[in-house]
## 1
Amino acid sequence: MQSSKTPVSGILIQFNEELNTAYAVLHISNQRIKLNQKTTEVLLPRPMFPGDTAKLEFRLHYKWYPVNGHHPFNAMVANGSFMRISRYYPVIGYQSSTEITDSFVRKKAWHGSCYNLARTRSSCYQSNRFHTAGYDHFNNIRSNSYWYRLLVRRWKAGNRSFYRYQSGQLIPFRFAIASARYAVQKSAYKNIPVYVYYHPSHGENVAQLMKNARLTLDYCIKNFGQYPFPSLTFAEVSSFTRGFNATAYPSVIFMAERLAFHANLKAGRQQDVINELAGHETAHLWWGNNQVAPDEREGAVMLTETLAMYTEMMLYKKLYGEKKKMRERLKMHQQIYESEKGYSSEMPLYKVNESSPHIAYSKGAIVMVQLCDLVGEDKLNAILRLFLQKYRYPHRATTIDFLQILYQYTHPDQHRAIKAMFTGI
Ligand SMILES: [Zn+2]
């Protein structure tokens, strides 16, 4: 619910394809409202005020097809199931993330009528701040998995085990389930327990992963502020999972078997895939989408990926010394940027969107290291720490907020160069 005092008399509920709407019911004021369409506009029996409660009951199912190839988004295998479960939850209210983004399609006539839609919200970096209803305390999930800090209840019904976990703090609405017969290694850094859950026969890189985790915690805590969660967990997931090699959820980093856990680190060009994945993803626990939850608009990806890339570069410096590995990695990112930029329209870093990862990741890494050379690493880290203090979630930060802080704490003589880095092409 939005924070205004205005009551709402109707809500829009949208279900993902995988949700079985035959079982979806909204309970409000002792009434049961059945929802059996993908998108339903519900007229409420009484107006709801901020803080009011209603209960939405639903079931979801997921299956994959063994015929014609196996291309699942999630992994459902004998020893290693994984599901990014928050993606399957019904969403409430207007969803700017599902807007038609193609400006031609937005304008064109269709079936005799004309969309003639205005610019999308997310296409403008100067839009008003907008709060979606999707972010909330994550305090009510049951499953047969191991994650999250507080196991508040466990019980058995029939042959199934149920566990109820609670996050204990405000986190962005993102959670996933991984369930397998894991081997576990535990270590600690400054009283923060670090766990690695891995397939019992994939233990070859666990020691290096632990070392990298301690180093990343050390750098980020020293420079950006306290680690926000009670523990840090790395979990191996099956290579059947699509869409990432590693991904950071609040306090848990999921990493695929093929590139991290069961990869030969000595092969090929000896890139440090552990730092590339574990260092980068652990850094995300300070930036978007964990402590920073960028407002959905142009530039949002700069507050997630560019800041994680900067941290990854500084970790290379700390691990290997400046000249060697970090400059090597920057050279590779320069090549990626050069080879990709011809395929899409160029946009400045502060307006970058997800369709241009070569700008958010590769150009972002280069720009942040240039900025670091210009103002000094300690100074830049102090500015990043201030940005985080001021715009920590539940604030919805924008790249304009970031640039304002950057200009405020740097010398006016440096502003021309900074402007060119972030707003130039
Ligand atoms: Zn990232």
## 2
Amino acid sequence: MDRREFVILGLGTMAGMLTGCSSLVATPVTPVAGKVRLTVRNFPALSRPRGALKILPQGQETPLYVLAEDDGGYAVLSPICTHLGCTVDVDGATLLCPCHGSTYDRRGRVLRGPAERPLRRYPSHLSDGVLEIDLREAA
Ligand code: FES
């Protein structure tokens, strides 16, 4: 790789990282005893098919994606790509990493590498219109 290719690759990677960070604005939330509780009706994105919400729990540096699933449930995923740590973007049915092209499904499973491991997933439970997310037990 010559110097010009290196610079172009570096600029492309930086642009991808910036794009990944800006696709959704994070909503600050306050955890209680390690859990976040979201009243779904207060977040219209969670009621839409393939809706996505980005939350930033107080005290954490990294936001999370809350994704509406086709079966009415939700997946709560870390946006950090398991390849080299870039931020993935939600793109309809998939999550795409702008850095090297890894692709995940909305449950965090790898559809295309180079990533080999799924995105970290946080347990969540929906009851009476309230989605409870446990921040302590990501898998
Ligand atoms: S950091 Fe995501 S594919 Fe490399």
